Amino acid sequence: MADFAPFTTNAADRRLPILSEISNGMQCGPADRRLMNGLWWRIETELRNLILGAGINPTDADMAQIYQAVVGIHRQTQSVTITVPGDYPTLQACLDALSHRIIPTPVDVTISLGAGDHIVNESTPDIILQHPFGIRISIVGQPLLSAFPTFADVDNASAPPVETALRAKFPTRIVMTGQVRAGIYMRAGVIRSIENILFIGDGTVGQHGLLIGEWQGELGMGGTAVRQCWFHRCGNTGLRLNFGSFIYGYRLGFTHNVVGGFIVANKSGAQVLDKLISARNGGTGVDVLDSSFLEVVNGTFESRRNTGVGLGVTGNSQFQGEGATGITIANNTGYGIAALSRGLAKTKSLTGGGNGVNDVFTDHGSYVEMQTNVGTISMSPAANTIGNRNSYNAVS
Amino acid sequence: MKRVFTDQDGNILGSHDLDIGITAAVYTAQGHEGVREFLLSDEVVPSASRDRETGVFSFARLDPDFIANYVEPVPASITGTQAKLTLLEAGKYQEVVDTISAIPDPNLQMAAELKFNAATWYRNEPLFNDIGEAVGLTPEQIDDLFRAASKK
Fold this sequence. Notes:
The complex is a heterodimer of chains A (396) and B (152).
Chain A: E1 14-15, H1 19-23, E2 31-32, H2 33-53, H3 60-72, E3 80-84, H4 91-98, E4 109-113, E5 116-120, E6 128-129, E7 137-140, H5 151-154, H6 159-167, E8 172-176, E9 182-186, E10 189-195, E11 198-200, E12 208-212, E13 222-232, E14 237-241, E15 246-255, E16 260-265, E17 269-279, E18 284-289, E19 293-304, E20 311-314, E21 318-320, E22 326-330, E23 337-340, E24 344-348, E25 350-351, E26 360-363, E27 367-371, E28 379-380, E29 392-395
Parallel strand pairs in A: 3-4, 4-7, 5-8, 6-9, 7-10, 8-11, 9-12, 10-13, 11-13, 12-14, 13-15, 14-16, 15-17, 16-18, 17-19, 18-20, 19-21, 19-22, 20-23, 21-24, 22-25, 23-26, 24-27, 26-28, 27-29
Antiparallel strand pairs in A: 1-2
Chain B: E1 2-6, E2 12-17, H1 24-28, E3 36-40, E4 49-50, E5 57-58, H2 64-68, E6 77-79, H3 80-89, H4 93-101, H5 106-116, E7 120-122, H6 126-134, H7 139-150
Antiparallel strand pairs in B: 1-2, 1-3, 4-5, 6-7
Helix pairs in contact in B: 3-7
């Protein structure tokens, strides 16, 4: 090892890994030969000293097998479905077991959450999703027992009957009680998908159904696909994205959450397909703020009977609904749509009515563009007129 | 200065620059009841807002005490056309013309005619109070005529 010189930039010292190396866990691309030799020498020396110290005298072939075993026990070589509570008693126990696994493409790990309530409370640790190979991990509940809920299914001022209706459709539930941060808390990383799960809270302050990144004091940037999930009666927000986080959503629902249904915050982004329903939440139905982006495409968006605003778009944020097949924002106690502080919203086939003061309120340099409204939409400022500090509601 | 429209509860329905040709009828047509109009300086027009801590949105709304004590400001100026149309509607146009014609001093009469035909009428012009008094208008009634004229 006399010529060992780490961190060399000499291209001649690099080469692509050979197939046998890849199959044994080396997939880091072109390697620095001398650095790798040096690292392996250190590992080999430690292992060899350990074995020799035990009075065993292995051959080189024996040592090669040991090295392969060390890599192999951390490497997932084929796709697998892990059941909870079958293989592991809890989702967190399963995630802990996976935490040191190498899951190379195209291997997929599916965590199959069984039917029933998976409890998160003050005595259980947070379920934290953060895995370097998270893009290969899916968390999947059992298939819905009937069609994804409609607004009519959940349109009840009382939360318990709505919970009963949702439970009848979602066999797999993550149930929060007491002061817990989230049903699932994601941080700094990507998870392939979260599917077929009903998140239920008990209204205790601070609860989120799915929280990606904290609001303060933490880097966010988590992302996942959220499919066929519903968030009910969380003490804070059903689903919240913070600081550069992102989701692709497919059929999402929010009911009776105390602060709001769905919040996309701090330069985060979300796209939702097929159905987005936010109803009877204590605050805002859907809130896009601080340079964030939400798109609803190829489906319907309903934000109805929320105690606050139906759709908030504030602080340089954008709501893109031109690709939706229909948008209903009605009977909210606050404004239907509030576009404030340079908010931008685009709607198609918008139905309003019954919102507080106005279906659409645009202020402080904001812009709302409405295509083919359904019925009368009340708006401030009046259609196609500059007002409210250089704001504009364009109706076509 | 902004022209601000509210509903019967004082909620802002829209605030517009004075040169935007919009009236209370536009907001009444949207189904709002008791639409009122206020003239406010830009910095006091209330905003809708979102509380960063709680996420709660608040309506843009005029304070009830402000509404109760509101006195519409007298515009500092109006156009000559607005002024004459308002005098006509108030049945005072010919009286004013006759009063100016009857001014005995030819220079004062000429000055009055020039001001009467000016593109802009300024409320602080003493002539208006003098002519107004001659046709039976108090300064307060002249203020009202200026307010009415500004909306034409």
